Amino acid sequence: MNEKTCHANETAGWTPSGETRVPGAILALASTATAVLSVVLLFGYVTGLSDRIEDLEISAQALFANYSAMDFAESILSASGAGAGSYLPPVTTAGMVSTFSAAPDSSSRSRSFEIDLPGAEDLRVVRCSGGALAAGVTSRGLSVTFHRTGSDDPEVGFPIVVPGVNDATEWAIAGCLFEPGILGVVASDRDGTGQLHVIREGGIISSSEPDGIRISSSTLITTGVHEGSPAAALSDGSNTAIVVNLDGSASQSFHSPEGTCPVFLPWGELFGEPGSAPPADGKSCTVTDFFTGDFNQDGEPDVAWAGPSSVACRLSGRNLVILDSVEGSALVAWGFLEGRYGLGGLWESTDGELSWRKLLWSGFQLLPAGGVALAGYSGRISSAGGTFAGVRSGRLEYTAAGASGSPALVFDGGTPVDLDGSGLMDAAVVHDDGITLMPDPGGPVGASLRLTATTAAPSGEVLLTGTRTVDSENRFPEVSR
């Protein structure tokens, strides 16, 4: 009995191999711990993965918000010019707020181009079909070259020389926009006889002496189509002009209301009536400048003339010329300014007082305190998209409203030219070897803008900063985080 009991006890405490037997409770506890640890590790992995996914979602949302906001800002800058960069509103996308800053990128002037006229003096530039004509007086005569828009190289056959023109010769030049093959015309005075030189594609030039034309420093030339043929209107600034057929040199007299002169409008129509001008019923108003624009904001082009003592306008849809002059005052600046100024003129009285008179439906009226901000400017002035352009001290200036609201200088230098017919001034910078042409130097065409958009979370944390050159072909922002 005792032997059996002892044997049984020995069998219960030892395995056949002699190893210690692990109790089942311990195994169950170990299995539970392993399971808990696995759950903890899995939870940590899932949580980390969820955080990473959330970060990726936030990054994707921030990139989308930043990209969309820069598209929005670029559309404003492209339409309105550099001045709009100072008041771009914040953009909110999916709760993320993007703010902007914009500055001129002077290293990128992709649409500026050079015209070489070494040794030329009295350089002038005019717009023509497909590009620009540039002319300057050299020792051989008047040198004329044609460049297609954006090209630094002259077209085949140029430059050409108009003979008989020297530094003592009065001359004027105009581009042609309507007749294929004709680039422009040059009018010159030779011993009191007016000559007209037609410049054609390939550098071909033909000259004639039409009846009745006289050329002086005040001659205003415009080109268009008259009675189915290319023609040029030449006026001395009075309300009369000689219209010359460029194919056969036949000429005809035209007249227009006081304060204007007969001109070909940018869309080809001739403004004026055949015949000599009727006797003036008041003082004569000489015209020195002619320009177009949508002055009454009706979507249709309007016409304006300016001179030393008058501003005149003909609005679309109204066969009426509105004339303004101020007794005892001189017109020192004129043009169309956006906002409260509109189309008008800056008048200076004999005692130096400045006043701005703007066009209203019934005529020109004084804008109180309007002349103070324009002191120092002369000639034609213009503004659009918050950018103002005008000549001061003989230099073209582009200014835009800065962050503080005060004007900030965007571009300084050159003389004003019209390269696109928009009514806003472009710049021609004259140097020893020729001219640098800068279309709209205050906007994204002439001087590209470097646009920066900063996108922040609702908490204010900055998530993304993107930059873009507005005038660049690359539409994807460069991103840093």
Descriptive terms for the model:
481 residues, 2 helices, disordered N terminus
- What general form does the structure show? elongated
Helix content: 10-25%
The largest pleated sheet is described as: 8 strands, mixed
Distance between the termini: 86 Å
Rg from alpha-carbon coordinates: 37 Å
User: Beta fraction of the residues?
Assistant: 35-45%
Could you say which structural class the secondary elements and strand pairing correspond to? mainly beta
Which regions have little confidence, pLDDT < 50, spanning 5+ residues? 1-18, 106-110, 472-481
Q: Helical region count?
A: 2
The count of strands amounts to 36
Assembly type: single chain
Going across the biggest sheet, name each strand in turn.
26-25-24-23-27-28-29-30
Average pLDDT reading:
79
Q: Could you provide a short overview of the structure?
A:
This protein is mainly beta and 481 residues long.
Describe how the helices and strands are arranged.
Elements: H1 2-13, H2 24-80, E1 91-93, E2 96-104, E3 113-116, E4 121-128, E5 131-138, E6 141-148, E7 160-162, E8 171-175, E9 182-190, E10 193-200, E11 204-208, E12 220-226, E13 229-235, E14 240-245, E15 251-255, E16 263-264, E17 270-271, E18 273-274, E19 289-293, E20 302-307, E21 310-314, E22 321-324, E23 329-337, E24 342-349, E25 354-360, E26 363-367, E27 377-384, E28 387-392, E29 395-401, E30 407-412, E31 415-417, E32 426-431, E33 434-438, E34 449-456, E35 462-469, E36 478-480
Parallel strand pairs: 23-27
Antiparallel strand pairs: 1-2, 2-34, 3-33, 4-5, 5-6, 6-7, 8-9, 9-10, 10-11, 12-13, 13-14, 14-15, 15-18, 16-17, 19-20, 20-21, 21-22, 23-24, 24-25, 25-26, 27-28, 28-29, 29-30, 31-32, 32-33, 34-35, 35-36
